[in-house]
Write a structure and sequence with these properties.
heterodimer, A: mainly alpha, globular, B: mainly alpha, MetI-like fold, 12 helices, MetI-like_sf (chain B), transport (chain B), ABC transporter permease (chain B), membrane (chain B)
Chain lengths: 363, 292
């Protein structure tokens, strides 16, 4: 799919004697990164629109034919209904349809489901996206922090039994697909050993539990999210551990660490503010990639644990060929990943002074 | 004769290098095992298609060494026949996406300028899109049941990470002294690319290929599991898992092997691939060999 991305204003005016405030903003890393994220979102939105309208098996046309076959509607009636559900005016010229589609999206109108009439795609997303953001976000935080700590431990205890044990564990969990680990956990802990009750852990909350700032609600949410979070952590932690280990080993050989030691600084201080901080920096670029992977993988994990997140809704829409819902959820998943990448990169730029100086991406 | 001797010598050397790294050697043995299981064993073990109502979820016995599934078929025969497509698709996808990545990544790094920023913009765009949901959506539009078509689509979705990695690898290699030397000697660009840069990237490329293979196994397994890949007559590990899953195999104590045998087959295959990359480093990177 050769998608033309929108032009990104990276070619800046020639060097001038003294950049004014506005020019400094345009040249800053944060600004350029923001523009890039918006351009990517714009490109994805555009691609989805044309994919929906111009594919050989065009979902809009399929819907119209279905309506004619099922309810004996006239072509125009079916077409009007398709217009309403997809939130596109099919009678307008393509360019105008496109502009209207963009306008509707900006207003949060993603059309309606056509399998369950009267349900707005935006409402489905509002209801189910928070659960996925919660489970994926929590697990990334846990696996990143744990992975950095364990990776440092491995580097400091290099070639000891702890290092070997942790290395083996890391390669084992990071090479097995997350949905297989989920199945193994489910089968072994559930019906085989009867340690956990699978059926009661399904869904994102138990029936009858009222959302609110109560301990009961909080514990119930954790109870249902525990298995998905555990699997996400288990399958991503190995990567962090191995990356942090090699990064720490490289950092330990740097001159400033030797100097810090020579100055007689305390080991704990060296470990945290000299080694830990600098060794974990390169991991932030990986964080961005891993957000996309975990978010994408959530589709499978949610299906296995019957966790009511956005991934589960995507599968439901796919199985029912509910195109407006499919399209809306796909867009939202992609936009979430792009925004998460943006945050990861901005976080990185806060931590790495080289980027703060405005020299652009260092790589 | 000397030719044969040359080959024997090369094989001997390579095997020695593979055996240098214990984990890598284990992965190599694992891969040999799976290739044997998927391509040779089917000649001796016919695919069991008969359902036997009186033999549902039988435990392992001399007749059925891994027991029987939800319709009384021999699980071992399902595992034996389930590997071929998985391995072929993984290899094809890995090869195609690595090829795309090598071409785009090295072009980007060597030409620089507008070409570089165009390729990198496209790469960043692809990287930002979560692949698996896109695959799931695409599966509703395209019938993905052909091995070649599926491999091609999986490859088209997975070249971006590799391209970035290969670009930075080429960027760093072209700064090296020996490349500078070749350039100042007036060697052609083609010579520099094929004789100086590519050979030094072989370990990187081989390892990328293996990781692309693991990603392909992940994606095809996931698609089958969600029921998005049609499987009229092809049988694969993922299909066995999917059928066991939809028949509720997770709820019964006796159906353990029905779902676990293919799960463990895929898991071990993936593990073998990842472990094997350790040996690949040894084979292609002479600097690692010194003083091991």
């Amino acid at each position: 799919m050769a998608v033309q991305t929108a032009p990104i204003p990276v070619s800046l005016p020639e060097e001038q004697a003294r950049p004014n405030a506005l020019q400094r903003v345009f040249r800053s890393y944060v600004f350029r990164r923001l523009v890039k994220a918006l351009a990517t979102i714009f490109a994805v939105v555009t691609a989805t629109f044309f994919l929906i309208r111009l594919m050989p098996s065009n979902p809009v046309e399929i819907f119209i034919q279905e309506q004619i076959a099922m309810y004996g509607m006239s072509y125009q009636e079916a077409r009007d209904q398709a217009s309403a559900l997809f939130a596109i005016d099919l009678d307008a010229p393509m360019s105008q349809q496109y502009l209207e589609y963009l306008g509707n999206l900006l207003r949060g109108d993603l059309g309606q489901s056509y399998r369950s009439k009267g349900t707005y795609v935006a409402d489905i997303i509002r209801q189910f996206l928070p659960w996925t953001l919660f489970s994926v976000g929590t697990s990334l935080l846990i696996s990143f922090v744990l992975g950095v700590v364990l990776g440092m431990l491995m580097a400091y205890r290099r070639e000891t039994p702890i290092d070997y044990a942790l290395s083996t564990f890391a390669s084992l969990v990071s090479s097995v697909p997350n949905y297989l680990i989920a199945i193994i956990l489910l089968v072994v802990l559930g019906p085989q050993l009867r340690i956990i009750n699978i059926a009661s852990m399904r869904g994102s909350i138990s029936p009858g539990v009222q959302p609110g700032f109560t301990l009961h609600f909080f514990l119930d949410v954790l109870y249902h999210a525990a298995l998905p979070i555990f699997v996400y952590v288990l399958t991503t932690i190995g990567g962090w551990m191995l990356a942090m280990k090699s990064s720490t080993i490289a950092t330990l050989e740097e001159d400033y660490v030797t100097v810090a030691r020579a100055r007689g600084l305390k080991d704990g201080r060296i470990m945290t503010s000299y080694v830990g901080r600098n060794a974990s920096l390169p991991l932030f670029t990986q964080l961005a990639i891993s957000i996309g992977f975990v978010f994408g993988g959530s589709v499978l994990i949610e299906a296995i644990f019957v966790y009511q997140g956005i991934g589960q809704q995507l599968i439901k829409a796919i199985n029912q060929r509910d195109y407006p819902v499919m399209q809306g959820i796909f867009l939202i998943i992609t936009i979430s990943v792009i925004m998460a990448n943006l945050i990861a990169d901005l976080l990185y730029s806060r931590l790495d002074p080289r980027i703060r100086l405005g020299q652009g991406e260092t790589k | 004769m000397t030719f044969l001797k040359g080959i024997a010598h090369w094989v001997n050397q390579t095997l020695r290098l593979i055996a240098r790294n214990k984990a890598g050697f284990l992965g190599f043995i694992g891969l040999l095992f799976f290739i044997f299981l998927a391509f040779v064993m089917p000649l001796f073990v016919p695919l069991d298609k008969t359902s036997r109502v009186d033999k549902i979820y039988n435990p392992p016995s001399a007749e059925h060494i891994l027991g029987t599934d939800f319709q009384g078929r021999d699980i071992f025969s399902l595992v034996v026949h389930g590997g071929r497509d998985v391995i072929v698709i993984a290899f094809l996808t890995g090869a195609i996406s690595t090829l795309i990545a090598v071409v785009l990544g090295s072009t980007s790094a060597l030409l620089g300028g507008a070409v570089d920023s165009a390729i990198m913009t496209a790469t960043d765009f692809w990287l930002a899109i979560p692949t698996f949901p896109l695959l799931a959506v695409l599966a509703t539009q395209i019938k993905l049941n052909d091995v070649w078509l599926l491999s091609l689509i999986l490859a088209l979705l997975s070249w971006a990470t590799l391209t970035r990695a290969i670009r930075s690898q080429v960027l760093s290699l072209r700064q090296r002294d020996y490349v500078e030397a070749a350039r100042s000697l007036g060697m052609s660009n083609r010579h520099i690319i094929f004789k100086e840069i590519l050979p030094n990237m072989m370990s990187y490329i081989a390892i990328s290929l293996v990781f692309a293979m693991t990603a392909a196994v992940y994606a095809q397994g996931g698609l089958v599991f969600l029921g998005l890949l049609s499987f009229s007559d092809n049988n694969s590990w993922a299909v066995t898992i999917q059928l066991a899953w939809t028949r509720g195999a997770i709820f019964f104590k006796d159906s353990f092997l029905n779902i676990m045998a293919p799960v463990i087959a895929i898991a071990l295959f993936q593990l073998s691939l990842v472990l094997f990359t350790r040996s690949l480093e040894e084979i292609f990177n002479p600097r690692l060999r010194v003083g091991v």
